[in-house]
Structures are given as structure tokens and as C-alpha cells.
Design a protein that fits this description.
The protein is of the alpha/beta class and about 400 residues long.
Length: about 400
């Protein structure tokens, strides 16, 4: 028996089939725009048609911010990127658009997305590489068309906000063949002009008009520039590759001028503060030096150099006198000690005992004779007395304790 579905069940079943189909999940459909309606909610409703059929489409307001860069109208031939699914309330299928471009521009968008992914993977968009915009720039470089409205907007706002800032224009071709190379040349020129920050941009336009700022060489030149760069390409909804690479992105050229300088009043206040702090520092340093000079003058006034020299001489003489007295005392102590040591030595001197009737018996060469057993009769010996010596000859040897 065949299953019985409610209308809702069948609709959900069909929606599920659409959802699981990979082709319908993301595709590009080309056709002519009809029944184009901009709703007050911001949503855009339209129909794509060709000679053989038609397809209802919707682009929600959130997708329009970045997905639609031109005022689409009846009869435009466009390419729509999005998904196809079932709208449950009407039981019909429709396309949910994420991006809409005029036919023939789809390839540019694909190149844009591929380059964006490539540079992002290399780290060119990383916040760690972003340079700080100087708070008080003196010279601001401008890369834009000499004849475009963007230049006049930038110059007008710079002059209104801070007439002390010097704008330096490096005109560039910002659209068409050779525009990318022209922008790069202007950047290199400003690198030699000692500017503090550079504004790069132009007014709005189609993706084709803005394409110079989506070129890889231009993006890398912006990334490698040592000077902070503010990008301002197109209108607020336009986003180019250099917007991701630049150090700061402004929604419009006018906004870039606003963001690049502070009001003249703020600059004047900053200069006044700097002047005040510098004046205080100089005054303080001068005062300290003056106090030191005055101190030295007081020293000189209270004590003349010749008086100081005389006092030092007197002190040196006194030190010499004290040293001499100290040395005399030390010498006296040494003499007294020598006298005592001499008396002690004399008291134990063998010569002293010899003077009292004692003698010293030795060999003829002076070697002491310590025992009678070392001599025999007729041996010659020396007997040393207190006042001389006797050369004797042994007549008899009588050791004690022997018969």
C-alpha cells in the first residue's frame, strides 16, 4: 500500500531532498532579472528567467551588504551565487542568493576570492602586521586620481580639520589598463617624500572599475610599504583586497581624511602641552645648575685656594712630625728588646762559663770530644779556655766506673 503524506510532510521531504543535493547547495545561475522588488525590510525579491523557464529568488538584507555592489534593476542579465531550496509556505522552490554580479563579472569574483584566500593564508591580513597610524602627522601622502572627486573630498576635509598638515599628492590612474602599475609607482614615490601616512583610494564603482585594487602586485606593494596606509576604495559596501592588507580601512575617501588627522585644536593643545613640559624641564635643569654654581661660589668665597693649599701643607707637616715620632718610639722599643735578648743570650753563653774555670775539649779540628773512650794516650787535643786554648797530649785515659 502506498504511504499517505500530509502536505507538510511532503514539503519537508522535498526540502530534505534539496538540502542533501550537493549541486543545489551551492551553484551559480544566470538569467535576466524581472519582477525586481526592494522591500522595506531590506530584502530583495526578483525572478530569474530565460527563454525556457523562470526561477524565484530572494536575497536577504544581511547578504546584500557585501553580496550586491550595484543597483540591480529589471532587464539586467546577472549571475546569482547561492542555494536552491523549498519554500515551505508556498510549497515551491526558490533560490536564496548570497552574491549577485552582472554577467561576465563572475570570473572576476572567482579570481578575487582565490587571491583573498591565498594572501590570507600567507598572513598578509594578520593584525600583527598592522602599523599604527601616527597621531600627529605632518605630511600626508595621497594616491588617487588627480581629477576624481575623491581627491577634492580628501583635501577639503584635511584643510578643514587641520590646515597645518601638508598633503602630498602622488597622482595615479585608478581604473583601466595599467592602473595597478600606476598605483605602485605612486606608492614608491611617496616613500621618498618623507610622509607620515598614506591614503590610497578612489570613489565608488563596479568590480571592474575597482579591479586595480584587487591585483596581487598592488596588494603586496601595500603590505611591504614601510609607511602606514589607510585604504578607502569605493563606497562603504565595496571591499577590495588592499582593504584587508592596509593598516587601516576607511569606508570612504572622506572618512579616510577624517581618520588620518586630528582637529587643529587637538594638535595645538598637544603642542602647547609639549612646550609647557619642555619649558618646565629646561627651567628645572637651569635652576639646578644655578644652585650648583652658587654653592661653588660660596665655597670659593669662604676659603681661598691659597688658604686651602697652606692648610694642606700644614697638615702634611704635622703628619710627617707624627710619623717621625712614631718611628722613634718604635726604634726605642726595638733597642730595648735587643738589650734584653742580648742579656739573655749572654747568661747562657758557653764563653761566660769558660771565664769561670771551665774549659772546652775538642779535636784538633774543633770537633767536640764528648767521651774519654774516643781518645788514647799520645793523642793530641785542644783545650779551649776563656782567654785562649791549650794544645795538649793525652798521657792516660781513665774512664769512670772502670778499674
Amino acid at each position: 500500500m502506498n504511504p499517505i503524506f500530509s502536505v507538510t510532510q511532503l514539503t519537508l521531504y522535498l526540502k530534505n531532498l534539496f538540502t542533501r543535493d550537493e549541486t543545489l547547495a551551492r551553484l551559480i545561475v544566470e538569467g535576466e532579472v524581472s519582477n525586481c522588488k526592494y522591500h522595506s525590510s531590506g530584502h530583495l525579491y526578483f525572478t530569474l528567467k530565460d527563454s525556457g523557464g523562470q526561477l524565484k529568488c530572494v536575497m536577504f538584507a544581511s547578504a546584500r551588504v557585501k553580496g550586491l555592489s550595484f543597483p540591480m534593476k529589471e532587464g539586467d542579465k546577472v549571475q546569482v551565487l547561492g542555494r536552491v531550496s523549498v519554500y515551505e509556505r508556498d510549497g515551491s522552490y526558490q533560490m536564496y542568493a548570497d552574491r549577485i554580479v552582472l554577467s561576465g563579472l563572475g570570473e572576476l569574483y572567482e579570481r578575487y576570492e582565490q587571491l583573498k584566500k591565498k594572501l590570507a593564508a600567507e598572513g598578509l591580513f594578520d593584525a600583527a602586521h598592522k602599523k599604527q597610524i601616527p597621531p600627529y602627522p605632518k605630511k600626508i601622502g595621497i594616491v588617487t586620481s588627480r581629477t576624481g572627486a575623491a581627491l577634492q573630498d580628501i583635501l577639503s576635509i584635511l584643510h578643514r580639520r587641520n590646515p597645518y598638515v601638508q598633503p602630498v599628492l602622488a597622482p595615479a590612474t585608478v581604473q583601466g589598463e595599467g592602473a595597478g602599475e600606476s598605483v605602485i609607482r605612486s606608492l614608491k614615490l611617496l616613500m621618498r617624500e618623507d610622509v607620515d601616512v598614506i591614503i590610497v583610494g578612489r570613489g565608488g564603482g563596479s568590480i571592474e572599475d575597482l579591479w586595480a585594487f584587487n591585483e596581487e602586485d598592488v596588494a603586496r606593494a601595500v603590505y611591504e610599504c614601510p609607511i602606514p596606509i589607510i585604504s578607502c576604495v569605493g563606497h562603504e559596501t565595496d571591499t577590495t583586497i588592499i582593504d584587508y592588507v592596509a593598516d587601516l580601512r576607511a569606508p570612504t575617501p572622506s572618512a579616510a581624511a577624517e581618520m588620518s588627522v586630528r582637529l587643529a585644536e587637538e594638535t595645538e593643545a598637544w603642542f602647547a602641552d609639549c612646550h609647557s613640559r619642555l619649558t618646565w624641564a629646561m627651567t628645572d635643569a637651569i635652576e639646578k645648575k644655578r644652585e650648583k654654581v652658587q654653592y661653588m661660589l660660596r665655597l670659593l668665597a669662604s676659603e681661598k685656594p691659597d688658604q686651602r693649599i697652606q692648610r694642606r701643607r700644614e697638615k702634611a707637616l704635622q703628619l710627617r712630625k707624627d710619623l717621625k715620632a712614631s718611628m722613634a718610639g718604635v726604634m726605642q722599643q726595638i733597642k730595648h728588646r735587643l738589650t734584653l735578648d742580648a742579656a739573655a743570650l749572654e747568661s747562657v753563653s758557653p764563653l761566660k762559663k769558660l771565664g769561670r774555670g771551665y774549659g772546652f775539649v775538642a779535636e784538633e779540628d774543633g770537633t767536640p770530644i764528648t767521651s774519654v773512650t774516643k781518645k788514647k794516650p799520645n793523642d793530641r787535643i785542644r783545650v779551649i779556655l776563656g782567654d785562649g786554648e791549650l794544645i795538649s797530649e793525652v798521657k792516660e785515659v781513665n774512664p769512670y766506673g772502670r778499674e
